[in-house]
Amino acid sequence: MKTYLGIDVGSVSANFVLVDEAGEVLEAVYLRTRGRPLEVVQEGVAALAKTADHGAVAGVGTTGSGRVLAGLVVGADVVRNEITAHAAATARLIPGARTILEIGGQDSKLIIISPGGTVADFAMNTVCAAGTGSFLDQQAARLGIPIEEFGAIALEAQTPVRIAGRCAVFAETDMIHKQAMGYGLPEILAGLCEALVRNYLNNLGKGKDIRDKVVFQGGVAANAGMRRAFERVLKRAVHVPPHHGVMGALGAALLARAQTGPGARTGFKGFDLANRDYRTGCFNCNGCANQCEVVEITQASTVLARWGDRCGRWSRAPLVSGA
Amino acid sequence: MRLTFPHMGNLWISVKTMLDSLGAPVVCAPLTTRRTLSLGVRYAPEGACLPLKLNVGNFLEAAELGADTVIMAGGCGPCRFGYYAQVEQAVLDDLGVSLRFLVLEPPEGSARELVGRIRAITDARSWWQVLGAVRRGFVVARCLDVLERRAQSLRPREVRPGAADQALAAAEKIMAGAWSSGAAPAFRRARALLEAVAIEPERPVLRVGVVGEIFTLLEPFVNLDLMQRLGRLGVEVSRSIYLGEWINEHLFLGLYPGIHSARGVRKASLPYLGHFVGGHGQETVGSAVLFGEKKLDGVIQLLPFTCMPEIVAQHVLPSVSRDLGIPVLTLVLDEQTGDAGLTTRLEAFVDMLWGNRGGICA
Amino acid sequence: MKPVVGIPRALLYWQYFPLWQSFLEGIGVETYLSPPTGRQILQDGLAALGTDVCLPVKVAAGHLLALRDRVDLILLPRLVSAARREYACPKLMGLPDLVRHSLSLPPLLSPVIDRYRHDNWPLIRVALAVGRRVGAGLPAVLRSLARAVECYRRYLNLLQAGYFPQEAWEAAGAGQAPDPRAPAGDVVALIGHPYTVYDREINLNLLGRLERAGLSVRTAEQVPEATARRAAAALPKHLFWTAGQQAVGAAFHYLEQEGVVGMISVMSFGCGPDSMTGDLIARRARRGGIIPHLSLTLDEHAAEAGVLTRLEAFLDMVAAQRERGVVVCG
Lengths: 323, 362, 330
What we know:
The complex is a heterotrimer of chains A (323), B (362) and C (330). Chain A is α/β, with parallel strands linked by helices and 323 residues long.
């Protein structure tokens, strides 16, 4: 049986899935990135290695903000942005899906799927924290609530408190204010969910034709309070798919499957990544006043790749071994 | 007197050619970098648009190199650019940086004022010589347009990644030295470099029109090398604005014959945007309409954060997109624009356009 | 039957309402004014337009949506130029298009107001266009226009006599002659677009708060246009935004006035002209160093706490300077 590996390395979390030929998830691994994307990729692949059939992997896809790095390390057949990856997974696994709401740790996306299952339109927010999961994380931490319990508590609310502010900073100020005025915890948590949903829709929903079926995915979709807030504001049912947390990785695996047709050989470097000595380095180029921070990936003192420079002086230079 | 001027992409090559031809002493500001930006952000008004902030950064860096006089274009609104020079002068004055501004713009009072300002630059040279220098600068700008257009068609088809950009960089360097060697022979050599780039003519490419505000379109530092990125993603770029065309339109009032004029573009915008709104708002909408009619795969609109004419255009473009069936991606650029987010958006947009062609995707 | 014409209580309303109202009444048209800006209007406006649109235009979108099911037509003029060789801001010039393509609305009545080249006759043309659209005859249009212009003139006189818009247009409607009001006590100049200065919901009732602090407020519109223009001539170049002329001119004028103890520039986040004129005013105030100056930028998440803290600090500065006669600025 052929299997496909999908890896989604984001700034907050990294997800790994192994799917079979039919796209069924065989194994899924979720890890925190902790600012060390390289190590987390090695760790994740090692975790899958325990149960996986090592000879069966027929294709590998990577996605997420660390996709290039991850792709280089594992030998990916497909390196794709997370919008395309999310859409690929949803269109394939959830028949009739037309709208994807995706909220990640550091960014959020809204994707419109055409009836034919391709991306028809999308929007992405990377600037404003008030539309992302980290906003809820921070507020949960401030209130001393484990993020896992956030949703259940929010569902207890009778009426969500209105928390003003498009901006995370101002919303926090207002939340503190509402706390001081004596509102209950469930009401405040539900209010935070609604504030996030409103910010999300104000940022991304402009001019977008939101239609059924609406699918909510990404790490934040685990929060039942968020799902209810979306349903309340959008006034329609919102579906959370079973593998909502790993849809990006799943999409990457499916894209790898599409890419590696019969006869094609995968570039997968195998499950023993953890034993290889990969290193990332970083230096400031002093070639001009831009002072680009150049990233360098080495394996056993051989430079595999460099990037981060604007002018191509490093990324286009022929790679030499030894350093 | 040591003259300087603000940067906007390749504009410096053309302006320097002109000033060199006049024998005027020029101090080119270093090309715009992060340092320029941080200087501009620190000293320019917080709510000002990005080009103004970068102008201020350019002037401060030029002053460090000994410049004492700034040449600026002006305007009479309603876009903020028409008042840039006055606000910039106030910023520099308050900083104690003494730069004199010579603003070349339609005079408010008598034409003598403008003549005086030009005379301050050209010294005792005859008007004939002045015209010759202006013509030279303009010809160089036109040559640069041709080279850039060529590079835009080479990039998605090049055999060796980066070859077109290397050739373009070398070609631009030749044009920058054209004042001494003459524009025509320089242009022949420059073009030969681009023609030598090996391509795969049959490779399928996407065609995308890039529209929007001129500064964000022409300045690669601000658009994070958008044209190159698109080329690398297999996109052949068409643009609504080129330097030479802009000079013809705004400085020569569109009188120079045989050049693509904005009049037709503005006419194409009228069903959507019924009136002139300053800047390039109408050109943005009109170009998007024309690109849609030519069945390009998509349109990308660029604007600096809070750019008024482009915000009007931005809100009109969804109708153009719907009516003509052409996807539009709007990118708002400011000092916080991150590389990662831009890359993801561009790649997803390109994937979507391939999807529309019935290509890849799950 | 003549259509019901909706007027959004936003943007140009704050400047021209007496003119419009009196004219439309004169030709027998029923008007419907959107309610004062409130939470719902604000929320609808924010949801309707892009994040980088300035607050006043978003608020206007909310008002337009509030009119949607109640009127047959919406009066939303395209203000291109209110004076010779000057413009409005690009967003006002493109407003009918901007909202037409972003919101679903009843038909718009959007006459072009363009005095860039000619001073007076465009007004007649606008009046005729409106009259034609609502089915009013030529004599009625001309008669109403004359009356409306007369009423508007009275209104402007009342403003300059120290009235605020609401009371001025009530008085102007009643045909009252201006009865000059000397400011009671120390004056704080509140400089900004009428739609930010007078819309209490947007500015957290700044005007009321200043008055409650025992200060007299004077705004840009209360300076006669000619006076403002004379003062604005101190700029190095003619400013091509009419509203900017009035704001900068009034600010420069107040900076020279006896009895003006402080100045607040109220700006909208994302407003292009404000980013330039606000800077020119602040620099001038700083260079002069005579009275405290506060630049206040408002946007939809202007948390009350942040604005109020700065306002209080400003008032403390004003008070401290009055006591000591010391020069402070901010």
